[in-house]
Amino acid sequence: MTPAEMEPRIVRYGDLMPCKTAFIDAHTPGSDQKENFTIIGGGVSESPDQHVHIAIPHGFNIGAAGQPPKCRNSLHSHRTAEVFFVLSGRWRFFWGRWGTAGEVVLEEGDIINIPTGIFRGFENIGTDYGMIMAILGGDDAGGGVIWAPQVIEDAADHGLVLGENGKLYDSKKGQSLPDGIAPMPVLSEEELKAYPEMTPMEVVGMGVRRYNDMMALGQHAPCKVIGETGIIRDKPGFEVDLITRGSARPEMHEHDRPSVLMPMRGHWRVTWEGGATTLAPGDTMSVPENLPHSAVPSMTGEASLYHIVATDDPAGPTWQG
């Protein structure tokens, strides 16, 4: 594969195309400055304005959220796994029906595997624009987002209505629900009982791992972060490894399905049969299946890279069941 053929499978951080109208809370004060990015796969955006960088199915989706300080993403749930790692900034993740069941603060490089079936949100509590990278299970990411009732109600007060077809309609632009399309129904109190209030011990203990700990574990071999034998023992339909300078190998290898490389720290030289390129933090590269390749740091200093590949496990509810 030539470098020109590979280029459409590389998304540079500086080329990311944001959408500011991706979700129902796009006009809600406190959430109206979010930028959402769909890097690989269709994602879960509710807006036709969302740009998809790489549409090739991988068995999972890759996205990102960029937010200025004090901007939050409203409470929602997914039917498949949702994993985040912090690329930049300082972030507070919270969960529960009202976002009060628990919270945890993540720093750069930290990762969180959020259980399916609970409401979750996140907020940039740093002092500058921050970015978190997201992995969603499945090619269709579980069919969209399930919003806490108050999010839908607040959005209606600011002109946005979500149709039962999963599309947004903005009264500020003169839009209204088409004939035959009803509003997305709000979850009833009985339906809400299916969304547990998990404790901090459950969410943090089973689903959060710190960057420095993973770096220490990955000094001589890649740190299996998420997987059947990972330090987060889960099978969400994909595996995540953290590769460090000490565990990177120059020998070529290949996978029987597409894999994704996402540098966290340092510059990485990726070589494949036919070409080579250098990736920087925030870049995302999709390596085709059955293509021999290698990735090694290209400069001195700290170096780490997240590696994601799909598995044959179903992408539905995982350790939360």
UniProtKB/TrEMBL annotation:
<protein>
    <submittedName>
        <fullName>Cupin domain-containing protein</fullName>
    </submittedName>
</protein>
<feature type="domain" description="Cupin type-2">
    <location>
        <begin position="69"/>
        <end position="132"/>
    </location>
</feature>
<dbReference type="InterPro" id="IPR013096">
    <property type="entry name" value="Cupin_2"/>
</dbReference>
<dbReference type="InterPro" id="IPR014710">
    <property type="entry name" value="RmlC-like_jellyroll"/>
</dbReference>
<dbReference type="Pfam" id="PF07883">
    <property type="entry name" value="Cupin_2"/>
</dbReference>
<dbReference type="InterPro" id="IPR011051">
    <property type="entry name" value="RmlC_Cupin_sf"/>
</dbReference>
